[in-house]
Amino acid sequence: MARQQKTKTKYSKGAATGFFMVMPTVIGLIILNIYPLLRTVYMSFFKSGAFGKWTFVGLDNYIKMFQSAGFWTITKNTLVFMVLTVPVTVIFGLIIAVLLDQKIKGKTVFRAIYFLPMVVAPAAVAMVWKWLFNSEYGIINTVLGALHLPSDINWIADPKTALLTCAIVTIWSSVGYDAILLLSGLQSISRTYYEAARIDGATGFQQFRKITVPLVSPTLFFVLMMRVMASLKVFDIVYMMIEKTNPAIRSAETILYNFYQETFVKNNKGYGSALVVWCVILIAVITIIQFIGQKKWVTYDV
Amino acid sequence: MAGASRNGRKISKANIFIYLVLILGSVIMIFPFLWMILTSFKSVPETTLVPPTFFPESFQNTAAYIQVTNSLPFLKLYYNTLMMIFIRVVCAVVFSSMAAYAFAKVHFPMKNLCFALVVSQLMFPAQVFILPQYEMISAIGRTDSIFALVFPGLVSAFGTFFLRQTYMGIPDDLIEAARIDGCGQFRTFVSIAFPLTKTAIAALAVFTALFAYADLMWPLIVNTKLDMLTLSSGLSTLRGQFSVNYPNLMAGSVLAMVPMIVIYLIFQKQFIEGIALTGTKA
């Protein structure tokens, strides 16, 4: 306590050096993040005209946004995308992690394979999946046909399946990343818990529920938060898979896809700024809900 | 003893099931890449065969690669992507290390304010900064440049926060010993503390490189000249050019992913452990 008091009032020798050591980062963040953040919020109250002319419009962008049916569609699409991707990715990630945590051979090889999509640019990932999902010549419909399942699914251009297709690709490409994080959480669990449980006659599933899940829950919570955030700001996979001319665009367009179109293609910078502010608000609200919810299931003190 | 052996057999039966599931998963993970490579050697008519053939007629058919490299300057794209990754990694490591050390080990004026500023940036998606960042780059006339590609990654709030955790783990006694020996604060950082954080630095480098390489929206916005694109944004232009010419699209994708995959296969352990570290420490 006395020591803390001391450090609070007395700076270290070389405090000036410390100050200068953080300055590149601090100044950089002010220029690259703080100023842009404030400017984005500021611009969301303006309308951009020709020749860089800006007119103050107050809350007009937001009013226009909330009154537009298209806006609610993209918000719905984004939330649906979250619901489609997050639980499946995290559950599959956990299953893979648990399996990789067993005493098996070739662990590093499996680990490397599941992580593979992470080192491939999403643009390339989207490209190959677009080909796999091709309605006429794609291998997926061919395989479905061979199994006597419906094989005429227009995965990418049918409004009913377009977003689902993007979700499948996203799950495929992120499941390995989650598995790696969860695996390192699992590996920090002491083996003695399992031995004790086995002596007490606990089944594999009981061990999973009573030991694994609580002890890995902090990592699980981190992965979940990260996954939710990533799903709410999805852009690249959807942008690469669903072109602007795709008839299913309306049922697959997400908030940031629309932000990109409005801001950088249609040059509606004020409206675009309002959209990205909305995205931040949505992320903040859902993150807060998760933080409240975590008290119910995340165990920190073991 | 008999009980143990029965138990052992049970475990190995369970193991077979585990292997089956893991192998099935691996096939699902690898197949798209395999199909990408196979398709890149096919001709367009070959890709429209019903039922599709598995292998291309000839692996010597490199027409797709020739067409793709003719329409996109791939060597330039490799160079741009490599430079963007390299500079971003160096900046993230150098600036974040310096700041992280100071935050963890030095008491200086306005420290809490500065640290709050860093942490608060972790909550925002990068896209909220993107339009003003673009305006800045365009105001100084540096669109279509390597500098533009690097710009948003000059400093890293995440890197600072992550490395600070590592520096916190270095015992104060060690730092104080160096200080008593007459090392200045900066010398202590460079010659004592920094070398102790190699694992974390490698992790941050991998993390930064992967996300820079994957980034699509920023390069798409700032660099529109064909020879200033990155691999990611270059691929997106191919999509418009060869809409259903899948051999060409696959050849482009193969070219874009091969360098990173080769690096990954060599440093596989560092990649995965690095990513695991950035996830668990942060």
Total strands of chain B: 0
Main β sheet profile of chain A: 2 strands, antiparallel
Total beta strand runs of chain A: 2
Structural class of chain B: mainly alpha
Task: Give keywords.
heterodimer, A: 302 residues, mainly alpha, MetI-like fold, two-stranded antiparallel ribbon, B: mainly alpha, 2 domains, 15 helices, disordered N terminus, MetI-like_sf (chain B), cell membrane (chain B), MetI-like (chain B)
Describe how the helices and strands are arranged:
The complex is a heterodimer of chains A (302) and B (282).
Chain A: H1 2-9, H2 15-43, E1 46-48, E2 54-56, H3 60-67, H4 69-100, H5 107-115, H6 122-132, H7 139-146, H8 162-187, H9 191-199, H10 204-232, H11 236-241, H12 249-252, H13 255-265, H14 269-297
Antiparallel strand pairs in A: 1-2
Helix pairs in contact in A: 4-8, 4-10, 5-8, 8-10, 10-14, 13-14
Chain B: H1 2-40, H2 44-47, H3 63-71, H4 74-105, H5 111-120, H6 127-139, H7 146-150, H8 157-168, H9 172-180, H10 185-193, H11 198-214, H12 217-222, H13 231-241, H14 246-266, H15 268-281
Provide structural commentary.
The complex is a heterodimer of chains A (302) and B (282). Chain A has 302 residues and is mainly alpha-helical. Chain A has a single domain, classed as MetI-like (MetI-like fold, Orthogonal Bundle). Chain A is 73% helix and 2% strand. Chain A is built from 14 helices and two strands. A two-stranded antiparallel ribbon of chain A has the order 1-2. In chain A, a hairpin with a 5-residue loop joins strand 1 and strand 2. In chain A, helix 4 runs parallel beside helix 8. Chain B has two domains: 2-61; 65-281, MetI-like (MetI-like fold, Orthogonal Bundle), CATH 1.10.3720.10. Chain B has helices at residues 2-40, 44-47, 63-71, 74-105, 111-120, 127-139, 146-150, 157-168, 172-180, 185-193, 198-214, 217-222, 231-241, 246-266, 268-281. Chain B starts with a helix and ends with a helix. Chains A and B meet through helix 2, helix 4, helix 5, helix 6 and helix 7 of A and helix 1, helix 4, helix 5, helix 6 and helix 10 of B.
